[in-house]
Specification:
Layout (H helix, E strand, L loop, with lengths): L1 H41 L4 H6 L14 H10 L1 H32 L3 H15 L2 H14 L7 H22 L4 H9 L4 H12 L1 H17 L2 H6 L8 H6 L10 H22 L3 H8 L4
């Protein structure tokens, strides 16, 4: 009887703790989402009311409809910039995933000084600040004619490889070697073994890497600004920055509207794939 009472008390305490944690994390979520909410409501307000009443909801006096969006698209040539951002982001993510997944598989399956040096180099690349190499990188990219949406993919591969190789390496360690040996006995070449057997198993980590790299590349301002030929190619963060005029003047209405258009694609992508991110991060943290 006493044992049942203790179990009931424990269950009540767990329920109370559950409600408390739910309340705490709900408040944290609201705090995180509130800046996005402010951007959305100010995107449909007149410029004067954005600076005067930034936290107020739109009303009959301040509501501006979609005029900020139309004005922003015209001023920034937004769809051209979005095309460049899509090409750079999609191309970079695909190249990073394929190259780093193969690299991680090689590092873990071919033991030796070369593979160890490759892994150490990838880890070292994660801790080198971008600011240390940005000027020399800009000069080198210009010399190698990488100042275009296709060329900058090579640059992103170099900067994105470290974290991706680290995560893929952790996952490869958890894949039984017997599966690959069976495939090779059946006549698969190393490339067939990787793409038909190993790579499909990597799906959780692949999606996690894709989310992390896509969010970074889509929102990146500094690297495209330094590398791209801005007379021909601009990404979304760059054209939004151009809405800032001289002497600190900012057209807040069009800027807020363009920010909304900029975050919609990455939010949709993240929402569609977020259920895999925890699984992929945990899988990538496996130690050999």
């Amino acid at each position: 009887m006493a044992k049942n009472t203790d179990n009931q008390v424990s269950a009540v305490r767990k329920a109370k703790h559950g409600w408390l944690l739910t309340l705490i994390f709900t408040l944290i979520a609201v705090l995180w989402l509130y800046p996005i909410f402010l951007v959305v409501i100010n995107a449909v307000k007149k410029k004067a009311f954005i600076t005067r009443e930034p936290f107020a909801l739109p009303d009959g006096r301040s509501f501006f409809g979609l005029k900020n969006f139309v004005s922003g698209i015209e001023k920034t040539n937004f769809f051209s910039a979005m095309g460049n951002s899509v090409i750079i982001t999609v191309g970079s993510v695909i190249v990073i995933i394929v190259c780093t997944a193969m690299c991680a598989w090689y590092i873990n399956r071919v033991k030796g000084k070369i593979s160890s040096a490759m892994y150490t180099g990838c880890l070292f690349a994660m801790i080198v600040p971008f600011q240390m190499v940005m000027f020399s990188l800009s000069k080198l990219a210009n010399m190698m004619h990488l100042s275009n949406p296709i060329g900058i993919i090579v640059v992103y591969l170099g900067f994105g490889a470290g974290q991706a190789v680290f995560m893929f390496s952790g996952f490869v360690k958890s894949i039984p070697l017997e599966i690959e040996e069976a495939a090779m006995i059946d006549g698969c070449t190393p490339l067939q073994t990787f793409f038909q057997i190993v790579f499909p198993i990597m799906k959780p980590t692949t999606i996690t890497v894709a989310i992390l790299e896509a969010m970074w590349i889509w929102n990146d301002y500094l690297l495209p600004y330094l590398v791209l030929d801005l007379k021909k190619y601009k990404t979304i963060p760059i054209v939004i920055q151009y809405l800032k005029g001289g002497y600190g003047a900012v057209d807040w209405g069009t800027m807020m509207a363009m920010l909304v258009l900029a975050i919609i694609p990455i939010i949709i992508f993240y929402a569609a794939c977020q259920k895999y991110i925890i699984e992929g991060v945990v899988a990538g943290a496996v130690k050999g």
